[in-house]
Fold this sequence. Notes:
Layout: E1 2-6, E2 16-20, H1 31-37, H2 40-60, H3 63-87, H4 94-111, H5 130-133, H6 135-152, H7 159-180
Antiparallel strand pairs: 1-2
Amino acid sequence: MAQLRIRASPRSISAATFCFWTSSVPGKMELEGVVMRNGSLAVMTLTMLGVVLAWDGARAGHPAIEERQALMKTLGTATKAGAEMVKGARPYDAAEAKRILDTYVAASSRIAGLFPAGSEEGGYTKAMIEIWSDATGFKAAVDKFEADARAAATATGDLETFKQAFATVGADCRSCHSDYRQ
């Protein structure tokens, strides 16, 4: 059995495999006979390459999707560090607590702009359609998160104050995720 592997890009389907059986028996498919008689191997290869590239393009999606996913990962990293301090798994550090809350403030001012019309489709996203159908509610949730993050950013003097501020901002995150994220 002969195999031909096509690899379009690391993000696309890992490989498309075509198998052709070679045989010296007349009437059986021979790799050379297919290529030389009618070019069907080339046609099939180009067709599958087109499918793979189309899949890759569909997965790439809207640029806002990638940008908001990167921002959410940054928030997730900050949240993990803050949760470790709150739970006592990491010693409280006022400077790090301030950096965590500053990360929230910086992100909060960008979130609403990362959900433009048209970015609800065109790539892998966990954003629910309610972000666009209930734009007023989503904007209110983002505004509340931003206001709470700004207020929390000054509450890093001691662990207890940080815990309260972190809990408030965390509740905003959970609320938005339950209403607007799959």
